[in-house]
Specification:
The protein is of the alpha+beta class and 238 residues long. The chain contains 3 helices and 5 strands. The chain folds into 2 domains: 139 residues, Pectate Lyase C-like, CATH 2.160.20; 57 residues, no CATH class. The chain has a 3-stranded antiparallel sheet. Strands 1-2 form a two-stranded antiparallel ribbon. A hairpin with a 2-residue loop joins strand 4 and strand 5. The protein is elongated.
Length: 238
Amino acid sequence: MKIQIKSIYGNVLFELEKENNTIKDTLEYAVKTGANLTGADLYGAYLYGANLYGANLRGANLRRAYLHEANLSGSNLSGSNLIGANLSRTNLSRANISEADLYGADLRKANLREANLRESNLHGATLHETNLCMANLCEADLRKADLYKANLGMTNISWTKLKGVLNIDLASIPMFCKWDSAIIGDKIKIGCKLKSIEDWDFFFSSNEEFQTKRNTQEFKQIQAIFEAYKAYINHLNN
């Protein structure tokens, strides 16, 4: 039985003929042989437990695909369509999923450790007990996503859209604000501003503004980050 993998434009990217062939077998063989599957049309494909380690599926159509317990570790899924896909218990560690559309996707208990999800759309996605430790969620859209018991330890969530997120109080999340922050010597850097503790104290007690309006949640997060760094530095110096 011959099965072809076509692109979203209709051209054949890969084909395999064998007895009792399936789309899963064909795709696994394509990945194993290093085939370029950029833009592959895999709409609704049944890929339960497929080994797709390191696959190049950039810009692929995986809408409503069934990828439960599949291995996509180290794969390139940037710009792909994963709307409504079942990715529960899927291994996506260190995968590039930047700018992908995962609207309403099922990512329950998936492993996204160190995955790059920059600018990805996770609006309404289910992330129950999902491992997002050390993932990059910068500028991602998590509005109305369900983070029940999700692990976001050491995750980059700067500029992440979190409005209407469900069960965020039950998730493990890092301290965060919209700006990158760090301790440099005896000073604290938040965004592009590098100041001493005394200078930051003066700023927060004043009415001065930079780019973030006072009396907003974003401003409170910035001040909270400063207070945490301040306590850390003072504790080490005592």
